[in-house]
Amino acid sequence: DQQVKQNSPSLSVQEGRISILNCDYTNSMFDYFLWYKKYPAEGPTFLISISSIKDKNEDGRFTVFLNKSAKHLSLHIVPSQPGDSAVYFCAASARVSQGGSEKLVFGKGTKLTVNP
Amino acid sequence: DGGITQSPKYLFRKEGQNVTLSCEQNLNHDAMYWYRQDPGQGLRLIYYSQIVNDFQKGDIAEGYSVSREKKESFPLTVTSAQKNPTAFYLCASSISGELFFGEGSRLTVL
């Protein structure tokens, strides 16, 4: 039972355009969501997060939107750059019910390719 | 510099052998985690520890064991009971909802 789903295994966009990566979740107890970026043979690095009390969080070129009623979040990258090419993982946790544990459930990832 | 160090980066093992992957952090984080990544899969949680001398099974703990004798260290042993051990293993520690990952260890069983 996959609690966090990234239904697009890959996405290709042109440099300068917007990249939109999508993530759906099924567990209504999730209250904290994160996006990680991963280059081949490296550990993932944190990109941006959002708490369930918000519907938008912005950090430079990266914005995460959360739609709790649809159990959907998305990561927008504007403008996209070739260096953004990586695999992006969506992750979620149920921090309150887990007693503060940071145990995360990850999606399968979306490979983003930004073409020059 | 503070961070998480995993070793070895690459490891080959014969079937039937146990191997131990090292994970050390100097971030003073209480919680540490082991994840496994397979092609086309998300990161799956093997074991986690929220405090020294305590750890819990994650979603795919069978065939693995861990210890947490020191705050800085969370080694993972891949035992011969793990049926499909070839994978990329990631160690992480956390604070305030964010995981910090090591660079990973790639284990190949020959």
List its traits.
heterodimer, A: 116 residues, mainly beta, five-stranded antiparallel β-sheet, 11 strands, B: 110 residues, seven-stranded mixed β-sheet, four-stranded antiparallel β-sheet
Describe the protein's architecture and organization.
Chain A has strands spanning 4-5, 10-14, 19-25, 32-38, 45-51, 56-59, 62-67, 72-77, 86-93, 105-106, 110-115. With 116 residues, chain A is mostly beta strands. The relative contact order of chain A is 0.33. Chain A starts with a strand and ends with a strand. Chain A is globular, with a radius of gyration of 14 Å. Chain A contains no helices and eleven strands. The mean pLDDT of chain A is 91. Chain B is mainly β and 110 residues long. Chain B is built from no helices and eleven strands. Chain B has strands spanning 4-7, 10-13, 19-25, 31-37, 43-51, 54-57, 64-66, 76-78, 87-95, 98-101, 105-109. In chain B, the strands form two sheets. In chain B, strands 2, 4, 5, 6, 9, 10 and 11 form a seven-stranded mixed sheet that branches. A four-stranded antiparallel sheet of chain B has the order 1-3-8-7, with no helix packed on it. In chain B, a hairpin with a 2-residue loop joins strand 9 and strand 10 (98-101). Chain B is globular and about 40 Å long. The relative contact order of chain B is 0.33. The model of chain B has no long low-confidence stretch (mean pLDDT 91). The A-B interface holds A 4, 6, 9, 32, 34, 36, 41-46, 49, 89, 91, 93, 95, 101-109 and B 4, 6, 31, 33, 35, 40-45, 48, 50, 58, 88, 90, 92, 94-95, 97-104, 106.
